[in-house]
Amino acid sequence: MANMEELDGSTSNVIYITEEHRIEWTHEAAKELLKLYDEKCDMLDSGIISTQKKLWEFVSKDMNKKGYYYTGAQCENKWKTLKRTYRNKMDKIDKYGHKRPCPFENEITEILSKRPQESTFNRSFLSSKLGRLKKKDDFYYQMNLNDPPGFSDDGESQDIKNVKLVQNADTTDEDFLQNTEYVVQDSGSSQIVEEISELRKVVTKQNKVQSDILRQSNELNQKIVHYLDGATQRECQTLELEETRMEQQNEIIKQMKLQNNLLQKLLDKLG
DNA sequence: GCCTGAAAATGGTGGCGCGT
DNA sequence: ACGCGCCACCATTTTCAGGC
User: Origin, by domain of life (predicted)?
Assistant: First the structure.
């Protein structure tokens, strides 16, 4: 590689640019990219990040903090390339059964398995799944590290451990980005992002468990309702049968009375 | 409230140049 | 031949402003 330009003063995480301004991705940088992308996707899912574009800006900023100087667009491109390479490899496995090592196969598999909508081209599904979770005007999120989202009732707490990521209609996305940057830097950088991500996972898990319980409860209730409906129906049928039986008995009694009358008249004539 | 068209967002793909 | 990084373009969906 001729005429390389070293952008980073440190000896590690060195990035080179060629005469044609082609950047190079080191193995470590790509691995970091996948890790950050996975994290940021979690934040996108939970609505902390509003769009994919912002996601790549955040990834880029975090990469910069770790000494990897790539733009959001470059990060996005790298992800696309990695995904394409991954798919090509998988296609070849399907077609020819043989396998050459695919870089970051495990990492990409994990990311795609968590987000199946990304593994195939299906925009409508993607949109319905992720959605634009919030309209820009509604964009108002609060994160509290002591309490997972939705579990805190003290939004005004001044506890320094707490972190708030807030954007309302009066703030621009850029303001929000900068404020978020400020808060995150002040509060311990990527560790907090990781904690948010972890907390989100816990909440998601709890929500899933709750959802499962509710679903099972609903199924049980439906069965009970179904059983009760059946019981009511059977009871109605029993009543109807009973009524019919009573009517038949009345009819029998009526006929017997007529018979008795006739017999009485016959006896009177005979004797 | 509904409709419409422009703009934005997003993922996929083809092609180019380069290196191996 | 193949892989990689990048760019440009396409198809589709969503958002949003404007008009009725």
Answer: Eukaryota
Residue A255: predicted pLDDT: 84
Distance separating alpha carbons of residues A226 and A173, to the nearest angstrom: 52
* CA distances (Å), origin A264, targets A252, A253, A268: 18, 16, 6
- Which residues of chain A between 56 and 95 are close to nucleic strand C, CB under 7 A? 73-74, 77-78, 80-82, 85, 88-89, 92
Q: What percentage of chain A reaches a pLDDT higher than 90?
A: 0
Q: Is the dihedral of CA A122, A125, A126, A132 positive or negative?
A: positive
Assess whether A18 (CB) lies less than 7 A from strand C.
no
Residue A33, burial from CB neighbour count under 10 angstroms (0-12, 13-18, 19+):
buried
CB atoms within 10 A of CB A86: 20
Which residues neighbour strand B (beta carbon < 7 Å)? A 1-2, 18, 20, 51-53, 55, 80, 83-84, 87, 118-121, 123, 126
CA atoms within 13 A on the CB side of A120: 5
Rg (CA), chain A: 36
Q: What's the pLDDT at A246?
A: 80
User: What is the bridge-based pairing of β-strands A16-17 and A5-6?
Assistant: antiparallel
**Distance, CA of A51 to chain centre:** 16
Which residue's C-alpha is at the least distance from the C1' of C7? A77
Q: Which of strand C's nucleotides are less than 7 A from any protein C-beta?
A: 3-7, 11-16
Q: What is the pLDDT of residue A100?
A: 55
